[in-house]
Specification:
By secondary structure, the chain is an alpha/beta fold. Helix content is 21%, strand content 33%. The chain starts with 7 loop residues before the first strand and ends with a strand.
C-alpha cells in the first residue's frame, strides 16, 4: 500500500551543486541533508524542509522539463513569493486551482516549481 512520498528527484547539470545549495537553502529555507557516501560520489545534493525532501541528481545531458514539476505547499505565500522574486527567480501567479493561491517559479537551473497555499 502506498502511504506517502518519500522524496522527489529533480535533475541538474554537472557542476551546479553550489548554485543549487544557495537557492534551496538560502532562498527556499530548506536544509541540506547528507547523501549516503555511495550516492554522494555521483554528485548532486539533497534538501529537506519538514517531511518534504527534494533530491537533485546530476544528469550529463540535462534539459529542464517544461511542464513536470513538484507542487510545494507553503504558508504565507505572499511573503514566500516576494522572497523567491527578490532572489531573481520568476514568480508567475496562477489562479486556476480552486481553493488555493499559487505561483510557479524556476530554480537556478530551470527546474519548474509550483508553490501553493490552501485558502482559509
Amino acid at each position: 500500500m502506498l502511504t506517502a512520498f518519500d522524496h522527489v528527484l529533480l535533475a541538474a547539470p554537472p557542476g551546479s551543486e553550489s548554485e543549487l545549495r544557495g537557492y534551496y537553502v538560502e532562498v527556499l529555507g530548506m536544509t541540506e541533508i547528507p547523501k549516503p557516501p555511495a550516492l554522494a560520489a555521483r554528485g548532486g545534493c539533497w534538501f529537506q524542509a519538514g517531511s518534504v525532501q527534494l533530491h537533485l541528481g546530476i544528469e550529463k545531458d540535462f534539459r529542464p522539463p517544461k511542464k513536470a514539476h513538484p507542487g510545494l505547499r507553503v504558508t504565507g505565500i505572499e511573503a514566500y513569493a516576494h522572497r523567491v522574486g527578490a532572489a531573481g527567480a520568476p514568480v508567475v501567479w496562477d489562479d486556476n486551482l480552486p481553493g488555493h493561491r499559487r505561483f510557479y517559479s524556476e530554480d537556478p537551473v530551470g527546474n519548474r516549481l509550483e508553490f501553493l497555499e490552501p485558502l482559509p
